[in-house]
Design brief:
TIM Barrel; 12 helices; binds D-glucose; binds magnesium ion; alpha/beta; 343 residues
Length: 343
């Protein structure tokens, strides 16, 4: 039995369309997804603002809240909680060159409107976490905005969110590139810098996604550990990634099992179950059939739980002796044998 609670976003079950080709699976409605998520053992759902309230741009603030209250009822029906709400700024025509860091004042205002509405939706759904995946907050053309100005814009935007609601926590999901060329806030280290510069650093933390750390050339377990050291890991997006290429969102652990083991190990050692959900951000392969549209979620959970068992079996006494004697060849082989089922 896992000690952790798991969460997943509706976009994890998608139609298979990519930049090079159309859909390969039928769309699935929100309620069907909720039912399957609950059945698979998830405890919470992650939301984009417009996953919860589609067409929100054309609704009043009160209409948005009322719609969110209905979604809360649907969550309750399946015994699910909401984990977070993330303003989906990257899809909107207003924010094609970023939101909080757009050089256009009207676009920045629109981004703040969506951020405030995301907070309203989160409160109606019964959660206190806002995730900022800063998709287009950077540059396509390096000279198009000042990195100093852009960084300060982000701090200002977060301060406004913290002021708008005194209970909300803001969580940045860093990514070094894609869809932009150069991100302003690319790693957990950047997130910690931004957090420290806000008016309430305790309420500003990070969401480490394994694939994003790999894209930055960094180790996901160490990135998780860095945020944990400051008590600023608010959630995670576990998945996997084959090296530094396009963002793949593979099932957790399928590409680099040792790295996945170390991510689970650092979460277990720091009792992350007391702090947050273990969130997945995984995509099915394009060739996957409708029928198999949830296999990548099942596989990610199964691999996480199997690695949790491996951590429970990990002989810390033996490992510590090896560490003391600096017998790292032995320590490494012990870990590999454990993963290969040889001890
Ligand atoms: C893409 C991101 C994306 C976010 C999600 C929540 O690279 O990982 O999936 O996690 O939109 O904001
Ligand atoms: Mg993610």
């Amino acid at each position: 039995m896992s000690q952790f609670k798991f969460s997943v976003g509706p976009w994890n079950v998608h139609t298979g369309a990519d930049s090079y080709g159309p859909e390969t699976r039928q769309p699935v409605d929100l309620e069907t997804k909720f039912a399957r998520f609950a059945e698979l053992g998830f405890s919470a759902v992650q939301f984009h603002d417009d996953d919860a309230v589609p067409n929100m741009n054309n609704m009043t603030e009160e209409e948005i809240k009322a719609y969110a209250r209905e979604v809360k009822k649907l969550l309750d029906k399946y015994g699910l909680k909401a984990e977070f709400v993330a303003p989906r700024l990257w899809m909107d025509e207003h924010t094609k060159d970023g939101g909080f860091m757009s050089t256009n004042a009207q676009d920045r205002e629109f981004a703040m409107w969506r951020a405030y509405r995301s907070i309203d939706i989160a409160k109606e759904l019964g959660c206190d976490l806002i995730v900022l995946w800063l998709a287009r907050e950077g540059t396509l053309c390096a000279e198009s905005k000042s990195p100093v100005w852009a960084t300060r814009q982000l701090v200002d935007a977060i301060n406004k969110m913290l002021t708008y609601d005194e209970t909300i926590r803001v969580c940045i999901e860093p990514k070094p590139n894609e869809p932009i060329d150069r991100s302003i806030c690319g790693t957990i280290g950047h997130v910690m810098g931004i957090s420290a510069a806000t008016i309430d650093p305790k309420r500003v933390g990070g969401n480490l996604e394994s694939a994003h750390a790999v894209l930055a050339g960094l180790d996901p377990a160490n990135e998780i550990g860095f945020a944990l050291a400051f008590d600023k890991l608010f959630t995670v997006h576990l998945n996997d990634q084959n090296g530094i290429r396009y963002d793949q969102d593979k099932s957790f652990g399928v590409e680099n099992l040792r790295s996945a083991f170390n991510q689970v190990k650092v979460l277990v050692e720091n009792k992350f179950w007391e702090k947050g959900y273990v969130g997945l951000d995984v995509k099915a392969m394009r060739t996957t059939s409708d029928e198999d549209g949830y296999e990548h979620l099942k596989n990610s959970l199964a691999i996480f739980r199997a690695l949790e068992d491996k951590v429970a079996k990990y002989d810390y006494e033996y490992a510590n002796k090896l560490i003391e004697a600096r017998k790292f060849e032995h320590l490494e082989m012990y870990t590999m044998n454990l993963l290969m089922g040889l001890v």
